[in-house]
Amino acid sequence: IKSLLFYLGFMTFEKKGLRTYLKIPNYSMKKIFSEYFTEYIEERLTEYIDTDEIENAIITILEDGKIEPFAKEIENLLSKMDNRIFMGLDEKYIKAIMYSYLILTPYAMVKMEYPVENGYIDIAMFKRYEEVPYEAIIEVKYIKQKEYTEEKLKMKIKQAKEQIEKYKKSYELNTKNETMKKYIIVFVGKEAKYIEEIK
């Protein structure tokens, strides 16, 4: 749909930093677009996955060093899933969901279970281009909603911090101290219950 709108002249591209936006090129197109397409979309589409929001959330990690918007996108996806799915859900599925979103970006190479000297990083993002400010590693933990306790949350946070500390000592990450962001995300059921950047 986006390609077609661009091809027909209803939309044009605008670049700001790492983000590329589609925008309406002039007032005439704005009138046509707003009075017809927007109305049509609102009437026909009641629920969909907004890939623009996902892309912006990923760019926010790489450009601003903030992971909260991305965690919110994962929450949004989980909230749409049937509760029966969560009966068999565990940490590896959450990582797979996050990975499937993160690989959408052309600005980073994304690796799951990435090997370093001291273990396997859940998710690692390495920049493809010099102009990308940040890279990231993400340690993911998961607790089923019915199994949640404050003690279990504290234990998962402690485990994640210990793992991040081990990864930080690896040669590959040591050479990227200025650009490498390190995050912990603990999901409880459908919620990103705890998010922390490890300095």
Task: Looking at this protein, list some descriptive labels.
199 residues, alpha+beta, Trna Endonuclease, Chain: A, domain 1, five-stranded mixed β-sheet, 7 helices, 43% helix
Indicate the topology.
Elements: H1 2-7, E1 12-16, E2 19-23, H2 27-44, H3 51-64, H4 68-79, H5 91-102, E3 108-116, E4 119-127, E5 135-143, H6 150-168, H7 171-174, E6 180-188, E7 191-197
Parallel strand pairs: 5-6
Antiparallel strand pairs: 1-2, 3-4, 4-5, 6-7
Helix pairs in contact: 3-4
Quick summary:
The protein is built from seven helices and seven strands. It has helices at residues 2-7, 27-44, 51-64, 68-79, 91-102, 150-168, 171-174, and strands at 12-16, 19-23, 108-116, 119-127, 135-143, 180-188, 191-197.
Number of domains: 2
Radius of gyration: 20 Å
Largest sheet: 5 strands, mixed
- Which structural class fits the helix and strand makeup? alpha+beta
Q: Give me the CATH fold name of the largest domain.
A: Trna Endonuclease, Chain: A, domain 1
Indicate the percent of residues in helices.
40-55%
How many angstroms does the end-to-end distance come to? 42 Å
- In spatial order, strands of the major sheet run 3-4-5-6-7
Name given to the CATH architecture of the largest domain: 3-Layer(aba) Sandwich
* CATH C-level class of the largest domain: Alpha Beta
Q: How many helical stretches? A: 7
Number of strands: 7
Give the overall pLDDT as a whole number. 86
Unreliable spans: none
Overall spatial form: globular
Instruction: Assess the beta-strand content as a share of residues.
Output: 25-35%
Helix and strand run: HEEHHHHEEEHHEE
